[in-house]
Write a structure and sequence with these properties.
Layout lengths: L5 E6 L2 E6 L10 H14 L7 E6 L10 H4 L5 H21 L4 E5 L2 E3 L1 H8 L2 E5 L3 E3 L13 H9 L1 H10 L3 E2 H7 L4 E3 L4 H13 L3 H13 L5 H17 L1 H11 L9 H7 L3
Parallel strand pairs: 2-3, 3-4, 4-6, 5-7, 6-9
Antiparallel strand pairs: 1-2, 7-8
Length: 270
């Protein structure tokens, strides 16, 4: 499927999603939101997508919404509602899918770009990258999950500071705050992100997805409920082909071969 604002491909278990509006800072317009919706809808049910890598083309990751296009709208509230409908559907799928989501940030992650980083699973930050919420600086409010994700990854007090003051974080500050996972030299960012995504794609996708859901949902549950969910997820993972393979590989002192469908077929697994 051709796209006007994205490049999307699946290879080696990795879904590579590249924001491709470099002349506009990879800003999000309605077309990009619609295309993100379409791609994530397909990938969320594609067993070949075992990890997702999100990155930006050109000199920056994503500067947020396309303010130039916003300024031309006769009914801006309706236009923004259309954008967020598609964008939020895409982000919900990325957060909920089994495949771990890696975001590689270079240049600026601003507005919805910062929100996208916050809601992802792992964030590699180029050494010269910057993170800023930016919404209230132009009289707007967070979208793209920012008001949900940011307090969870950096805490409410810091989330309030960044949202109300629009203080810009360096890559080092983003790592210290918990917004980014680690810093990578700018020249090494793409290669390191590829290595990380490929490593995750070789992992036990079902167990990774279940672990994501346990952690993401933990703040909504009391201890006993969370442990009940843990027990259920553990039993399910242990019964899976990947669970049996992981235990067998450990006992046999060899590397596991997760997702080996030919092995599963030989053993009669579904």
């Amino acid at each position: 499927m051709g796209h006007r604002t994205l490049r999307a491909e699946v290879d080696g278990g990795v879904g590579r999603l590249t924001l491709a509006r470099p002349d506009a800072g990879n800003s999000i317009n309605l077309t990009m939101a619609e295309e993100l919706d379409d791609v994530t809808k397909a990938w969320s049910v594609d067993p070949n997508v075992r990890a997702v890598l999100v990155q930006g083309e050109g000199s920056t990751f994503c500067v947020g919404g396309d303010l130039k296009s916003f300024a031309t709208q006769s009914d801006l509230p309706a236009h923004l509602t259309a954008i967020t409908t598609h964008l939020h559907a895409a982000i919900s799928r990325l957060a909920g899918m089994d495949a771990p989501v890696v975001v590689a940030v270079h240049g600026s992650a601003a507005g919805a770009g910062c929100s996208l980083a916050a809601v992802s699973d792992l964030v590699l930050a180029g050494a010269s990258s910057r993170f800023v919420m930016a919404y209230t600086a132009i009289g707007l409010t967070p979208d793209g999950s920012g008001s949900w994700a940011l307090p969870r990854v950096i805490g409410l007090r810091r989330a309030l500071e960044l949202t109300l003051t629009n203080r810009q974080l360096t890559a080092a500050e983003a790592v210290d705050a918990g917004l980014a996972t680690r810093i990578v030299a700018d020249d090494d960012l793409r290669d390191e992100a590829e290595r990380l995504a490929s490593s995750l794609a070789a992992g036990p996708t079902g167990a990774l997805g279940a672990a994501k859901r346990l952690l993401r949902g933990s703040l909504a549950h009391d201890l006993e409920t969370q442990m009940t969910l843990e027990a259920e997820a553990l039993a399910t993972a242990a019964a899976s082909a990947d669970g049996r393979e992981g235990i067998a590989a450990f006992l046999e002192k060899r590397a596991p071969r997760f997702g080996d469908r030919s092995r599963a077929a030989r053993r009669g697994d579904q």
